[in-house]
Design a protein that fits this description.
Two copies of one chain form a homodimer. By secondary structure, the first copy, chain A, is mostly beta strands. Chain A has three helices and 13 strands; from the N terminus they run ββββββαββαβαββββ. In chain A, the strands form three sheets. In chain A, strands 1-13-11-5-7-9-10-4-12 form a nine-stranded mixed sheet, with helices on one face. In chain A, strands 2-3 form a two-stranded antiparallel sheet. In chain A, helix 2 runs parallel beside helix 3. Chain A is globular. The first copy, chain A, starts with a strand and ends with a strand. The interface between A and B is large, with 53 and 53 residues.
């Protein structure tokens, strides 16, 4: 069994959504060896930092929170799909070129994983693509961007997916990961009442 | 396959180590539907909140940080051991009554899981118990307390375990979990340079 880490390291100088300063995490020292017998640090960050799961409450006022998430939806078989050739966004037309089965947790690998565009014009999943994945009845969608969409004022992609019970996993690092099936482990930290939470996402590849 | 969540919900009113106010997490609203089209919150907390992994840097000035952790040590077979009868601490003598094999990730279930003593006189692993687990060459030790020790000024238990490459997983909830073997999933959030990090810990029980 091979364990592949697909998580983004969290630090103050990491990429953040649209380079917004308020999205930059702060790690500070709470006690150190100069004044205590143990070292302890604090984290102050937006829940949508690095690799994280969005719950429906992120986009729907009466939406479910992160602790309502069925863990079998994030500890599940998954399928990495290679869209490194997509220029701007992933559409229905592009998705139709791939094998996608009902219940798949699809992970969209784009040029984002190997470039510096995460804070800029990153590749995202457009409305037609979200509609297609809803029709295919996938269980979840992951992407190697800090947002699964970036230029749709109505948040159509989020609404289509979260409104259909489809899990959204953002902030993956898929560079070097081949198009194939894996076991995905991406259970988020159990923040009570939260609209999102960070997760350590890994893929398990059977020998 | 059955998924058993053994994580502690994180919220402002959760139990914190020795009831210290500075250890209480703060979740705040960053944007809500009253002023934005999405809801987003922030978390401000000590890294040793709820269910988390300690890295060697927590106790050793030149110790390793959380991103150096070998994930195969926290995605691994594990063994829940029932010590609900332990009054104050878990010693070598108590551990000797159980089957423990080399490479086991042992999870210590105590009366902490079903009581309100997490902020007080919780059951912990004493120095003799840590020495025994080191001799048995376990890969990790988890406990249903916010600290694996509480009344040893020299932090002997942390030093013996982390000094031997044994993983420490704190803040578990093991109420209702039977003494048996499981697959443990407890990969911590990838905080760069940190001495600890929260994790969503779950057990997988094969059918």
């Amino acid at each position: 069994m091979k364990i592949i880490d697909i998580s983004m390291p969290v630090s103050h100088d990491m990429p953040v959504y649209k380079a917004r300063e308020e999205k930059r995490p702060h790690i500070s020292v709470q006690s150190s060896f100069s004044d205590a017998s143990v070292y302890e640090s604090r984290i102050d960050m937006n829940m949508h930092t690095g690799t994280h799961i969005d719950a429906p409450m992120h986009i729907f006022e009466d939406g479910g929170t992160i602790e309502k998430l069925d863990l079998s939806k994030v500890i599940t078989r998954s399928r990495v799909l290679d869209f490194q050739n997509a220029e701007n966004s992933i559409s229905r037309e592009l998705l139709e070129t791939k094998t996608i089965e009902k219940g798949d947790f699809v992970l969209l690998k784009t040029k984002n994983s190997a470039s510096d565009i995460l804070e800029g014009e990153f590749v995202f999943l457009d409305k037609s693509g979200a509609e297609y994945l809803k029709e295919k009845e996938v269980s979840g969608v992951g992407i190697d961007a800090l947002g699964i969409e970036r230029s749709q004022p109505g948040h159509e992609t989020h609404k289509l997916l979260l409104g259909s019970g489809i899990i959204i996993l953002e902030g993956l690092r898929l560079d070097g990961v081949s198009e194939a099936e894996y076991l995905l482990l991406a259970a988020p930290v159990l923040f009570k009442g939260a609209e999102a939470a960070p997760a350590r996402a890994v893929l398990i590849q059977e020998d």
